[in-house]
Amino acid sequence: MSKQKNVHEITVKVKGEEWSNAIDKAFKKANQKAKIDGFRPGKAPKEIFIKKYGKESLYMDAVDLILDNKYQEVIKNNDLIPVVSPKVDIKNIDENGVELLFTITTKPEVNIKKYKDLGIKKDEVKVTKKEAEEKIKELQKQYAEIVVKDDKIDEGDTAVIDFEGFLNDEPFKGGTGENYPLEIGSHTFIPGFEEQLVGMKKDEAKDINVTFPEDYPSDELKGQQVVFKVKVREVKTKTLPELNEEFFLDLGMDDVKTKEELIKKMEEEIKAEKEYVANNKYIDDLLEEISKNTEVEIPEEFIENELDRMFHQFEDNIKMQGLTVEQYCGFIKTTPEAIREQMKGEATKRVKYRLLLEEIAALEKIEITDEEAEKEADHLATHYQMTKEELLKAFGGTEMIKYDLQMRKALEIIQG
Predict the structure, then answer these.
(1) Would you say residue 90 lies in a domain?
(2) Same domain as 227, residue 280
């Protein structure tokens, strides 16, 4: 037995007639693909096959044939409910038999000392009129019209420029651009470049002196002082839309007619966003407090499985941006292994919180009926505009709907 109570090491020996039968079945399977002179596939006698390939060549196939039955026997005879895939080691194997070591991980014991009346308060949410007005200003910027400006460049304007960079009076690779639109304040160029464009006008030329950052990807340019010869082709500025019904319709707000109504709607949206954040923090604080009063040994396999899920989700998100993980790691100067290691703390927390909620659900005897699960599936299918069958397939079936509802009810209990 392992030191952890929920990790079970069980040895199984297969020998005699059972092992002989497994080897015979392995032979019949292997013989179908064997190439032996004078015999069609599957027709070579066992003695001829063994003479060419050796009896040892059949051992692993024989193990594969008996493995599932032996595993089922082990969990049934020992009354075990595995929660991760078992580990199987072959301790000994020869023509007389095989000795298998099954390492089976079951759900760990969770000892929660307190999960109610924790004294944790949810953060109070407040929204100011200024916040609403700032959000309206951001919306106006998104719908702003860009127009040509016959004046000097100001912060927030877009300067259309030609430029050529020189290092030690020699042009360097990648340092040239024509009719390049650069928004002042976007900080997309080398630090100090955009600031020196402020005040310039159309057709004005200027030498801009900057220093490349020490962490710049190019070894040739990092830390180097360079000169950009710049000419302004055009100056553009953003004209913000007026706060009128036309703008409100562009926003898809048919029920808004005045600025005051828009401010009120923005306040409601900001409050909803803050409530969502505050509620998530509140739940996290509650679970963190409960975890301080809980004894549980978390199997490493649990954490690795959660890490796998998190990393696959990360990969999918990167692919949606048109990148591979390797390309992304190259940009931020890291490795997939380092990213995975950074995720380990969050993975451990997620696993522990899930175990806590499962134990609370058990202590509170929370059961979800088939009717509740069906009702929730109908609701989710309507919300996501899917058929019920599509929803259940995506969700992992009715049992996963029940599990999700059970966890939500456990969360309601700890919130009081």
Answers:
(1) yes
(2) no
Which of 106, 137, 158 marks a domain boundary?
A: 106
Where are the extended beta strands (E) located within 74-122? 87-94, 97-105, 110-112
Tens digit of each residue's pLDDT (9 = 90 or more) over 302-343: 899 999 999 999 999 999 988 899 998 888 889 999 999 999
Residues 229 and 263 in one domain: no
Ramachandran assignment for 124, one of left (phi > 0), alpha (psi -120 to 50 degrees), beta (any other)? beta
Cβ–Cβ contacts within 10 Å for residue 131, how many?
16
Number of compact structural domains in the chain: 3
Query: Is residue 125 in some structural domain?
Result: no
Nearest-5° Cα angle at 408, 301 to 302: 0
Burial 311-332 (b: 16+ CB within 10 A, else e): beebeeebeeeeeeeeebbeee
Residue-range definition of the domain harbouring residue 396: 259-415
Q: What is the DSSP track for 271-295?
A: HHHHHHHHHHHHHHHHHHHHHHTEE
In a domain, 172, yes or no: yes
- pTM here is 0.69
Q: What are the counts of helices (DSSP H) followed by strands (DSSP E) for the chain? A: 12, 10
User: Does residue 128 lie in a domain region?
Assistant: no
CA distance 66 to 59: 11
